[in-house]
Amino acid sequence: MIDRFGLVARCVLFAAMAFLVSGCSTNPATGRSQALMYNRSEEIQIGEEHKGPLTEEFGGAITQPALHHYVADIGRRLAAVTEADFPSLPWEFTLLNSKVINAFALPGGKVFISRGLCEEMTNEAQLAAVLGHEVGHVTARHTSERMSQALGTTIGGAIIGGLIGAAAGGKEGAAAGAAGGATIGGIVSLSFSREQEIEADRLGMRYMEKLGYDPVGAIEVQEILGRAGGGGGTPEFLSTHPASATRIAELNKRYNKYYAHTRGNPNYQKHADRYQPFLAGLRALPKPRADAEPRPRTPEGARAMMLAAAFHAGHAGDAGAFGSLGDPVNWCWHCAAAAAAERDAE
Fold first, then answer.
1. Which of 105, 117, 212, 229 would bridge 134 by S-S if both were Cys, CB 3.0 to 4.6 A apart?
2. What's the distance, CA 283 to chain centroid?
3. What is the mean pLDDT of residues 310-338?
4. Long-range Cβ contacts of 160-167 (<8 Å, 24+ apart)
5. For 17-65, how does the pLDDT look when each residue is reduced to its tens digit (9 = 90+)?
6. What band does 14 get if pLDDT is binned at 50, 70 and 90?
7. What is the sign of the dihedral through the CA atoms of 247, 253, 259 and 262?
8. Are 185 and 153 in contact, with CB atoms under 8 Å apart?
9. How many CB atoms lie within 10 A of CB 212?
10. What is the pLDDT of residues 23-36, one digit of tens each?
């Protein structure tokens, strides 16, 4: 019989070696050192694999040429002013036909924004702020970082929990302890996300300013999201995003420190006039289909939603557009299918 403590020790050693092999590198966008388990080509592959299923789960893409090109052009121009070799990523900007107020990014340059969020905005600077924020998630390599951290903390939490459980209750205690430890590891990983959101806000403001947009647009976006969230809701400690008030305060500090030169400067505009035709075009489209609420309808869609929800959850509401990760109906295809069958039977 294999000694369980010896097995645990080997697991710890394996996890440590994995992180050591991955090594650390300094991110040219953030200036931070990151230990990442995924390289550039792997990140691109992850984005490519999940973009289709995720788009479908959110009602499909709006392909009306004028609307699509308007968003994609702003996105591409933002990507072009990013650091180092990030402009050469295979960037894609998708306008989703969903009423959900949301925007998110997959690694490798895949950025999504919903029709619902666009319809809440009033000027092009706000749109540039949202797209710039998502571009910032990609250049900061937040998904790869989060996946690496989640693996480490979940493994570590499970090992620690398993040791405690085994000491208390043998094999069954070890299993329960490991499950509890993994949950603790997930919460530890979650805490990094709030810092990543602030970092993406900063990068988004940097990129939009380079294109001559008024950085105040980034602050206005947070005001929009704050209103959409209705105030209150999940305590900030357990939310995947900082409260809008927190982000507004951070953005105001950054604006006053680095972008005061844009205040009243005609070289930095919001371009509300250019946004209005786009907004009118969106509102003239048929309403999104009734089943466009993000719920997994295929195994591929479930995997894509779990990736996006775990590493960059939605903006609006208490649990975001993806719902609570504590409820597997929100990301598990089998659970969602069973729930749908149960509803149909009623």
1. 105
2. 26
3. 47
4. 162/8, 163/5, 163/8, 166/4
5. 555 455 688 999 999 999 888 899 999 999 999 999 889 888 999 999 9
6. low
7. positive
8. yes
9. 15
10. 688 999 999 999 88
- Token readout for 312 is 């960059």
**Which tokens sit at 75?**
């996105």
Structure tokens at 80: 């072009």
